[in-house]
Design goal:
Helix content is 4%, strand content 39%. The protein is mainly beta. It has a domain at 18-111: Glucose Permease (Domain IIA) (Distorted Sandwich). The strands form 2 sheets. Strands 1, 2, 4, 5, 6, 8, 10 and 11 form an 8-stranded antiparallel sheet that branches. Strand 10 and strand 11 (109-111) form a beta hairpin.
Length: 140
């Protein structure tokens, strides 16, 4: 479930929401939205952060970010779409009762991470982190 959507900032230091918050509780498994390589897995300002460069996404590459998480994959490790890559850490959260902040960037430009999802997935119900490329239609 989307708790808060993407709100692009007017400028590099302007207010905005540079990602999407997905409602989740601590210890929820976090799946890679796309195949790629882990470029960072560590702590930033006391929060666990995971960054994955999306394979075949051009230059500079798209980078998906997930926080606050405990990474289950090493830096420079390859990941596949839908692979469990982290678990959601305990708060404090800026969402009640908790959420995963999912971001997307190309270079210094923030993008809406929901743009990675196929339109039919967004029409069917709540958004969840699923494999981006080759998402099969299931249950039909």
């Amino acid at each position: 479930m989307i708790v808060r959507g993407w709100e692009p900032p007017a400028g590099p230091y302007a207010r905005g929401h540079r990602g999407v918050d997905l409602g989740a509780r601590p210890d929820t498994r976090v799946l890679a939205a796309a195949p790629g390589q882990v470029s960072f897995a560590g702590r930033v300002a006391g929060r666990g952060v995971l960054v994955i460069e999306v394979a075949g996404s051009g230059g500079p590459p798209l980078r998906t970010t997930y926080e606050p998480v405990r990474a289950l994959v090493p830096e420079r490790g390859a990941v596949t779409a839908g692979q469990v890559v982290a678990t959601l850490e305990e708060g404090p959260f800026h969402c009640v009762p908790g959420c995963l902040h999912w971001g997307l960037r190309r270079g210094d430009t923030y993008l809406d991470p929901l743009s990675l999802l196929p339109p039919e997935l967004l029409r069917r119900g709540p958004s969840r982190l699923l494999p981006v490329f080759g998402v099969p239609e299931s249950g039909r």
